Amino acid sequence: MVITFSSMKGGVGKSTDAILLANNLAARGFKVLFFDMDTNNSSTIYYTLGIADEFPTRNVAEALTHRTTEGYAVKSRIQNAGIVPSSLRLSDIRPGDCHALKKTLPDGKYDFVVIDIAEHSLKSDYGSKGIRFDVYVKDGTGRCFDIEVQMTNRRNLARRARYYQSLMDVDSFPCGAGYDDLKDGYVIFLCMDDPFGYGLPVYRFSSICKEDRTVSLGDGAYKIFYNAAKHAIMPSETLKSFFRFLTGSNDGSAFSGRLAAMVEHAKTNAQWRQQFMTWEDEMKIQVKERAEVLAQEMAEALAEEIAQERVREFAEEAAAEVAVETARKLLTNGKLSEQDIAEATGLPLAQVEQLRKESSTDKA
Fold first, then answer.
1. Residue 176: per-residue pLDDT
2. Which of 23, 95, 13, 31 is nearest to 69 (CA)?
3. DSSP state for residue 182 in the 8-state scheme
4. Closest listed residue to residue 330, CA positions, set 354, 355, 363
5. Helix or strand or coil: residue 43?
6. pTM beyond cutoff 0.70
7. What is the DSSP letter of 125?
8. Fewer beta carbons within 10 Å, N or C terminal of the chain?
9. Which one has a higher pLDDT value, 201 or 101?
């Protein structure tokens, strides 16, 4: 039997669980082979500590390359358990080598094979951008779901969703498979505010013909953005309850109660604590980013308001100067009364009278 331990994030107790299971099986008399495919080498160090003078040179990378464990499985300090040691060269393993893992595993020599795999980071090739999804799962039909919790309203969500979709396709599409084997993929963003500004609770996107919107491309690629700020008009009671909970308000429903209990369990469970802290740190970072974005927007808005106010003040000052100059010319002309000049220029009568006095003083 083959048992694999994998995770989307590091520090969640994956390797510890794999070791505990392998040791428990070995203690019961089963022959166990441990495959250490995590490049941090912690499992290899644990199993070879005290029995090897240096880090083993025979390793899992070579075993995968040569499609065999013969000569690469080494003795461990745990009775009934052997290990195929980790290697930094795992990062150089081609996708085809990993798909050949089944051919590499020993047939019948061991009762159990326990595989510890590094946290899942998706990358299409050596020079491309690697990412780690918040949640990446597959259902019983092979459909893939990437779920991202988004605290900040970033402007590149659409292109991120496009890139995430492409990496999901590459990750779930083995070499030699036909295109009919490519499963549906869903990229889902849980946004704390409106990602597009149209006031909808949910934005669903799939490929539609622009010339005839009844024609769907049917490529199986779906992108969904939830707007938690509109939880009151979500399309189902479960979604309403979930997003109320996500925004910090427990509505007292049984569903919210289960969510709250699971969160508390995650906080107190030793194996989940590190994962929760990592998630909490990420939320703090995103909140900080949101604050920085809001501060920038407020600064820009304030600067624009100050500039507009200065333009208004300049225009008013210029208009006042023109009115005064016009009033002086009309007073010099002497054809209009002070009252008529005040009405024509918009100046107060008292100011026009003062201009008359100043003009008379200048003549004298």
1. 76
2. 31
3. P
4. 355
5. helix
6. no
7. S
8. C
9. 201
* Distance, CA of 99 to CA of 180 (rounded, Å): 19
Beta strands in the chain (DSSP E): 2-5, 32-37, 74-75, 81-84, 112-117, 135-138, 144-150, 185-191, 202-205, 221-227
Residues forming a β-bridge with 216: 208
Confidence of residue 276 (pLDDT cuts 50, 70, 90): very low
Least Cα distance to 326 among 344, 350, 348 occurs for 344
Residue 289: pLDDT above 80? no
**Cα-to-chain-centroid distance, residue 255:** 25
CA distance 59 to 88: 10
Contacts of 274 by beta carbon, 8 Å cutoff, 6+ apart: 11, 12, 13
- Helices 338-345, 270-333: inter-axial angle, 10-degree rounding: 150
**% of the chain beyond a pLDDT of 90:** 12
User: What is the secondary structure of 187-252 as a DSSP string?
Assistant: EEEEESS-SSSS--SEEEE--B-SS-TT-B----EEEEEEEGGGGGG-SSHHHHHHHHHHTT----
Q: Which residues contact 86 (CB under 8 A, 6 or more apart)?
A: 36, 37, 38, 39, 40, 41, 43, 44, 59, 60
pLDDT digits (tens, 9 = 90+) for 18-31: 888 999 999 999 99
Q: Residue for token digits 């005839």?
A: 212
Q: Is the pLDDT of residue 270 over 50?
A: no
Helix (H, G, I), strand (E, B) or coil at 138: strand
Q: Which two tokens stand for residue 68?
A: 């065999």
* Residue type at 74 in one-letter notation: V
Single-letter code of the amino acid located at 334:
G
CA pair distance 132, 12, nearest whole angstrom: 14
